[in-house]
Design a protein that fits this description.
- The strands form five sheets. The protein has a four-stranded antiparallel beta sheet with strand order 5-4-8-9. It has a three-stranded antiparallel beta sheet with strand order 1-7-6, with no helix packed on it.
- Helix 1 packs across helix 3.
- The chain has 286 residues and is of the alpha+beta class.
- The chain is built from three helices and 14 strands.
- The radius of gyration is 25 Å and the shape is globular.
- A hairpin with a 5-residue loop joins strand 11 and strand 12.
- It is 16% helix and 29% strand.
């Protein structure tokens, strides 16, 4: 089973129907972008996590790309609407920032993917994520934790991380909070960078995973280098040069993620320390 967090779209804007008495009721999955065939799977109802975010528990389906339609009512007196902007590459929640299907799109490889293709694309995604993680000096997948028996600083915006007495040295996001009988709350948090929600990270990882596959000599048909011309006899092939950094179509550079880097601060000056064994440190000074 996968978990999908949905943000309703209505009248061209992100919208939360709950304050107006509306609700998000249903997610239907289809195997075609027309969404006119049989429904492969449905998820209902949605649980409101926080302002504007609703969670569906998506049933287990074969890995691949699915097109979704979400039904919700904008307010208590309005008719239900159908949002057909949802596209899911399942399964979700596997620790991958991008999906093998997104890599296939970048390569121009038709879907559905075979099992060997999926395995190879996942491997390249993990390699690209390792490079990004090393550059950012932080993991790309947040960790889930729960604060138990805490009291909020205010009660009108419990999905605001500043409403809770937490002292963390990293990004934190409130996922859900549950009231207790004594007036306290149990609060579920995601701590760390949630890279799957960072478009710049997703684009970098997918683009570089695709390029790594494209440059491999064993990449197979449909994922080769960019061919500009082939001789009549097929004895010579000319390849297009990749666009330079900053040009349209160029691969994103690692510097585009600089704002997400986690810096490690150390004091500019330290008190003098006697060499071991006179100091508490066991480090030998030379």
């Amino acid at each position: 089973m996968s978990v999908y967090d949905y943000t309703p779209m209505w009248a061209g804007a992100h919208y939360d129907p709950a304050p107006a008495g509306g609700e998000v009721t249903r997610l239907d999955l289809y195997t075609t972008p027309e969404r006119d065939g049989s429904v492969v799977a449905s998820a209902t109802p949605a649980v409101r996590l926080r302002t504007g975010v609703y969670r569906f528990d998506v049933p287990t389906v074969p890995p691949g790309r699915y097109w979704g339609a979400v039904t919700f009512t904008p307010n208590s007196s309005g008719q239900s609407v159908r949002d057909t902007s949802v596209r899911l590459d399942l399964p979700l929640g596997q620790g991958l920032v991008g999906s093998p299907e997104a890599v296939a799109d970048a390569l121009g490889v038709p879907l559905p993917l075979t099992s060997p293709q999926r395995s190879r694309y996942e491997e390249e995604i993990r390699n690209a994520q390792a490079d990004v993680s090393a550059y950012l000096n932080r993991p790309l997948v947040p960790r889930a934790t729960t604060l138990r028996g805490v009291r909020p600083r205010w009660t009108d915006a419990l999905d605001d991380i500043d409403a809770w007495p937490v002292h963390l040295d990293d990004i934190a996001e409130v996922v859900a909070c549950r009231p207790n009988s004594d007036g306290t709350y149990d609060v579920d948090l995601l701590v760390g960078l949630n890279s799957a929600q960072e478009e710049s990270v997703v684009r970098y990882v997918v683009a570089h995973a695709a390029e790594s596959i494209r440059q491999r000599p064993d990449q197979g048909a449909g994922a080769g280098r960019r061919v500009s011309s082939v001789s009549v006899e097929g004895q010579s092939i000319a390849y297009d040069a990749a666009p330079a950094a900053g040009q349209a179509g160029a691969l994103p550079t690692i510097d585009s993620l600089r704002r997400l880097r986690r810096l490690v601060f150390e004091p500019l000056s330290r008190p003098p320390r006697a060499p071991w064994p006179y100091s508490s440190s066991r480090r030998s000074w030379r």
